[in-house]
Design brief:
It is built from 2 helices and 3 strands; from the N terminus they run E-H-H-E-E. It is of the alpha+beta class. The protein has a 3-stranded antiparallel sheet, with helices on one face. The model has no long low-confidence stretch (mean pLDDT 96).
Length: 66
């Protein structure tokens, strides 16, 4: 299992700017709480799922099974 940044540098820059503006909270979510602080609970749960492979909600990170 490995987690990496999205290969699309434009998406990474856009999401990182959103994180900066929201003090590290997911720019794709309205709520600002512990569950939406990057790396969000949704993606942490997906990382712990051995069958999950794919991007986090805002496309910043990608988890591969290899």
């Amino acid at each position: 299992m490995s987690v990496r940044l999205n290969e699309d540098e434009k998406i990474v820059a856009m999401v990182k700017e959103g994180l900066k503006q929201k003090s590290g909270y997911c720019p794709c979510r309205l709520e600002m709480n512990a569950d939406t602080k990057c790396m969000c609970k949704e993606f942490r749960d997906q990382i712990s799922d051995p069958d999950f492979e794919g991007y986090c909600h805002c496309l910043l990170y990608y988890k591969s099974k290899d």
